[in-house]
From TrEMBL, chain A:
One of its GO terms (cellular component) is outer membrane-bounded periplasmic space. Gene3D superfamilies: ABC-type transport auxiliary lipoprotein component. This is Curli production assembly/transport component CsgG. It comes from the Bacteria. Residues 1-23 form the signal peptide. The lineage of its organism: Bacteria, Bacillati, Bacillota, Negativicutes, Selenomonadales.
From TrEMBL, chain B:
This is Curli production assembly/transport component CsgG. Residues 1-26 form the signal peptide. Keywords: Signal. It comes from Selenomonas ruminantium. It comes from the Bacteria.
Amino acid sequence: MRSYRILLLACCMLMLATQVTLAFPRIPADASVSIVGIGYMGEDGSNREIRENLTDLATQSAAFYLSRSTSLNITEVADRGKILQEQGLALSGSIADSDALKIGKLQHADYVICGNIVGMGINYSDENNPIFDRETTKAVAKISLHLIDVKTGSVVSMVTADGSSESNSGSVLSILRGLPQASIFGGVDFKNETTPTGLLTNAVEDGLTGAMDKLLDKLAIKHQPMAK
Amino acid sequence: MKNMLKCAAVMALGAALIFPGTDTEAAAAEPAATASQSPNCVVMKFSDDTRYKGLESDERFAELVMEKLMDSGRFKLQTQKPIGKDMEEMLYNERRQEFVDAKRAIESGDLSAVFEGQAFKDEMANTLSTADKGQIVASAVTSRIGKESNAEYLIHGTIVNLGKGTWEDTDFKSGTSLAATVLQNIPGLGLFGSIGGGLLRNANKVDTGFGVIVDMRVIRAADGEVVWNQRSQVRVKKTKNLNVPLYSKNSAALNETDYVKALDKAAQEVVKGMVKDLDEHKLFL
């Protein structure tokens, strides 16, 4: 009776292993991958230049991440601009999978990665109490990534991740400045000089790193997580 | 015999632990085991019925819904991106003849032709955005999309309403008022109790947030019938002002990230509903 139980357990374990394997999409570890680009969603004329700079940065970072931390064969990102020009394609705003596929085919890639900054913004807040007062500027960005099979045109995997970066300024125990002995200890001021654009850049990079880690984990591709 | 079985169990356990994490050489993308039981679906371009079209809420919402559908591992999405064709425009073109006939009938004064026409049949949906369960969306269009995308079902979403608001947290106010009364009535606290109670009574909290109402529907491509639909209403909030004795916190107005959070929550809700109904066999009968 006990033997049957052990046998049953063994069968269950094997079935579980097979199921888990099937549940995750896989790509060959040495597949040729093209980073087509990261676009942005939402038309906002006033911030267009910042958004375009951030999407360029995100595209470069994605290629750098993959080439540094995986054994995947990454096609030259530099070719992308040339191909876009030759084909009369313009990648602005959000990037459609169909455009990504066209570029992937021209680059003879097996898979393409494209994505979007789904949303980003800056939150300002302040806190006051007798011990400290603090002003916080926090940039947040949500990044999505798609991995598309060039041969079949289907999206193999899709992930989203949030990135953030914040800076604080304020003072600690500034209430003591009102006392006669203020010259001995009059509180401490602290200030972070990071600009809002710098914070947004960090948030986008943080989100992109998170999304890349998530995508590679889903595909069960061995990778070295990048230091944030 | 016993040793053999134990050995088999240990090997199977080993396989279970090692197999899923390291086999990156496994060929081509296999869909999830459970997703393979689902029919092929395609996510259509979503529509936005609000006055904030410039925000591209429909695209953002579709992106978030697709990610969650894929993450659930329960749906086999044939084209996992909203396809480029604007379904509503195609539907309008499909019904153009209907409108022309109606115009002609109105001009001639014979309205019976209008009321007896296709448009006035109960089972016909007036627009894609208002299509309810059991109603038919132009089957010629849906079947064409289905064939082109190799999909049996079309998934479509509509953002019905998007709004923001600011309101006082009344629960917080009731709580602090109650605490103030207790403090003022504790014997022995005297003046401290009175001052503390007074300060607490002046405490207040103001929240601000986004509200989103979305409709989601699944259409059978072959005959254009809406087989499933759900309306979801979500609200995300954050503290705008918090004032309690010796502490205050203020946040600036809502921004894009708060609005994306609301869309994300709405996407979670609709996909949760779809998965639930899939489990209860209410979807894809």
